[in-house]
Amino acid sequence: MKNSNGINGEGTFKLYVNNQLAQSKEFSKQNKEAISFNLTDFISEHMDDIFVPGETVEFNLEIDDYEKDSSASSDEGFKVSYSLNLEYYDALPPTGNASLQLEVDRDFSGNKLGDFESNGKTFGYNFKLQNLKKNKGLLMVVLVFKVPSCLEVNYNQLSMLKESGKFDYYEVLHSNTEIVFYWRQM
């Protein structure tokens, strides 16, 4: 929180996480620097209490021992400008591949790749991803397709598939030898 013309008194900010006091910081009208809370140590110590699967984490900021500045008008209440910047890194993200099923259908029409007669012909790959947990959605799913060296990719068709919603995003990597497909949720 940055005091830009703003705090009209002094007191203490108290930050609670799930009703546990995580940190407190004193403030005054003279303080013009940003007041920030770093919860890394608190979260490390209380990880199992804070992040319970299926539960919500609640943050509360309270003001304690507030004394209004004598120069503030009598009808003026507490005021402060603030911003919130939250960074979160999951130390143990859930593995998603245990609940996915992948089917690949290659349409080579009985030809072997690399046969002289198959040069210049079009072959198709069909991928079918299925979430096996019907009652629970998955977060981002990533599929890396390694393009066989004897095949050429139709990038216009990839763009059309993306526009039609078959996947959310794709990247072509490593000199066109890998295509990475992304689904935001499934």
Describe this structure in words.
- By secondary structure, the chain is mostly beta strands.
- It has helices at about 40-45, 45-50, 155-165, and strands at about 10-15, 20-25, 60-70, 100-105, 125-130, 140-145, 170-175, 180-185.
- The two termini are about 35 Å apart.
- The mean pLDDT is about 75.
- The protein is built from 3 helices and 8 strands; from the N terminus they run ββααββββαββ.
- It has 2 domains: about 1-90, no CATH class; about 95-185.
Number of strands: 8
**What percentage of the residues does DSSP assign to strands (E)?**
25-35%
Q: How far apart, in Å, are the first and last alpha carbons?
A: 37 Å
| pLDDT averaged residue by residue | 77
Give the overall shape, derived from the CA principal axes.
Answer: elongated
Number of domains: 2
Estimate the helix proportion, in percent: 10-25%
Element-level helix/strand string: EEHHEEEEHEE
Task: Tell me the structural class.
Answer: mainly beta
Spans of at least 5 consecutive residues with low confidence: none
What does the largest sheet look like?
Answer: 3 strands, antiparallel
Strands of the largest sheet, in order across it?
2-1-3
Radius of gyration: 28 Å
Q: Helix count, per DSSP?
A: 3
